[in-house]
């Protein structure tokens, strides 16, 4: 009997063909988006701007791949393929982010790039690296505060996961110094609920 999930030799062959076709279409689609946007902006943009725009394009590709993944939850093969696709896109975002940070230390996109790097590292499971990057966002010399606020929230969440409740509370108190815009709707209420729950987890954790 073949290992669970692999099926017969015939079905595996069909699956391999399907995956190759899907990979070819996916690569072509992402490449088309990147080339289209980059070509349109190339005459007016600096290299660091082009690189950051590529990060934004890849983020949009992740959104598309995520939607596809959710729509095909019952299809195990496509689901696993989509996860691997997402991982590869995130690795590419990390590569571009590192390049901007290294080669364009005075870029106007450095602040946002540091945040993208932190988010991507966390999503890839490199929590220690993500913590370092979030801290760099918080200490970055800029009047912009939204990403500092979110970075402190994420640092608090990571600290809660590590059962470092006092540290988490410290981060939650710090983020009060940095305003965040919630836009329209009930964004502010939803964000407050998240923070209230995090405070609750910290206080309960400290009692144990």
List keywords for this structure.
single chain, 208 residues, mainly alpha, globular, disordered N terminus
What does this structure look like?
The chain is mostly helical and 208 residues long. The protein folds into two domains: 15-125, no CATH class; 143-208. Helix content is 77%, strand content 0%. It has eight helices and no strands. The termini are far apart. Residues 1-44 have low confidence and may be disordered.
What is the number of helical segments per DSSP (H or I, 4+ residues)? 8
* Tally of structural domains: 2
Order of helices and strands: HHHHHHHH
Main sheet record:
none
- The geometry reads as globular
| Rg measurement, Å | 21 Å
| Poorly predicted sequence stretches spanning 5 or more consecutive residues | 1-44
Mean pLDDT: 79
Query: What is the beta-strand fraction?
Result: under 5%
Q: What is the terminal-to-terminal distance? A: 49 Å
Structural class: mainly alpha
Q: Name the helicity range.
A: over 70%
Strands, total number: 0
